[in-house]
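Filed under: proteins

Residues; backbone shape codes:
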Amino acid sequence: MRSVYFLICIAFFLPKSLYAAQTTEKIWTVLGLNTTMGKFSYQLEPQLRQAVRNNLFGEFLTNFSGSYQWSSSWQFSLGTTSINAKPLGGPMLHEMRLWEQGTYSHPGSLWLLRSRLEQRTRQDSNEISYRLRERLLIKKPLIDKLSLVVFDEIFVNLNKPDWEITPTIAQNRVLISLDQQASDRLTVGAGYIFQTVFSHPLHIGHVASLYWQLYFPEQ
């Protein structure tokens, strides 16, 4: 009885925005094509994101980046992202992103910290959005080339262009997945992402994440 009373109290004090949250089930598929030349590496990564209900098209993204391995701990990257998005009930939108990224991982450790600064533009506006993304990733080897992967990523708006609908703390994503090294050149994975977009109303995404990373021989 006390447990029931406690849960009722928690529900009473929860922000009202949680009750009005929009919830969407999604499938995100990613294909990464990777190659390395000495201390330099390059990645082409198309992504398709769909809503489950009615098989709605959501977004198609293409990431392209080049990275430099500065040391055993630090890697620095420059990249672009092209996005074609179809909001529900709205016209097709195109967004371009230029981004700079630093990745830190201590040799032999299980965790990795990634910081990315994005400059975002849209076809329907001349204003530029600046956004910071911070991700902490942990990868724990299990058995037979199988690994548990967990990350938490937060999105922070550094300015407020007219088309941005989220506040300073814009979004949070938490992933839990399993990676399988299928071969020396291929890693496959599947997992779940809990996505929170702090718009009005709040948006909650339950995302099935499927991904393939293909590594070409070093040039």
